[in-house]
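#dry-run=false #mode=assembly
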Amino acid sequence: MSLRSIFVAGVAVVAVFAFLPFACAAENQKGGWQPELRVGLFSGQKTVSFHVNKDCDLSLSSSKKSKVSVGKGETVTVNLSGKGFQVKGKNLSGELLELRTPDPRDLKDLVTTVNGKQYRGGLQLLQRGGGMTVINIVPSEQYLRGVLPEEMPPSWPKEAVKSQAVAARTFALKNRKRHESEGYDLCSTTHCQLYTGMAEEDPDADAAIKETYGEVLFSKSGGSLIDAPFHTDSGGMTENSEEVWGNPSPHLRAAKELQTGTQPWSKSVPLDVFQSKFDVGSIKKIELSPLEIGKKTKDRTTSGRVKTVCIVGSKGSKIVSGTDMRSLFGLKSTLFSMKLSGKQVTFSGFGWGHGIGMSQWGAKAFAERGDDYKKILAHYYQNIMIKKLY
Ligand SMILES: [Zn+2]
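#status=ok
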């Protein structure tokens, strides 16, 4: 549910600055240990070339003795070779090659440029399906610097951006090993969280990360990291998790927004296209309670989202869930009403996204009112505590 589309126009300008020397990067957080994340960047690569801003070692994860030194600024090319890799005229037999600083504490200051893009931290090259999967090994706070500006415009009120930083950090650490079968923790697309390395880093986002350093959302009772989903705009009220995803969570309960009826949208679908999706003949009637935000009915959820719709046709009727309707017609949300008129079906609704957890536009409204990030997070995630993990 990235807000990237809002400031796509700024990308070209940002990209120019991304290739300036590293001196303009924000000051690194001093301090100790932080978790490392393995983020999948590219797959199926036959050849990988990279360079680094510090002296590094390239070694087989199975044997640290089989290593090649990589000097600062030196461009190194790795090719696949039989059951291993060929690099600088040397053959290294193994499945996984790692690029790291000799002192692990320096990893957070390492910048690796691969395929023309800069990433903080080192690399893993994994033999997979006849090619190499390129994985970024990145300390969690440095990872967030490449995620946060993609998820929320850093120019938004600081307390909203800080809420997003804590939610994104919690999401990343809770979902470690989500891509374990592919050899890494998280992918770099919106499936996990959009991550673009250093290309979109921003001083305001960096400040929000620094001011919430290591802070994550924990369950008040169980003492473990919670799932911290978020979405663009709830339209007026967020939703109980079980009413969208089926699983109840004490942390993901319906919560009212300061404003209702936000982000209105509508979409018309030609009747023949609509009919072709349901095997009920010619559509006669669509049965759905009127939309009222925050009013639960037999076919609407606590927040008023569509639970089910009954489509009545000449050959029978069909019950369709709101989420199926949303994916069938690419609707922004399930908070909608429907109207059959003439040769078309019109959906009219509010909000954008699944409606579970934090609403980003809602967080902005709370921050503009003067709420701090702790208050905002406690509104959208219930029965939680904010814990400094490192
Ligand atoms: Zn993913």
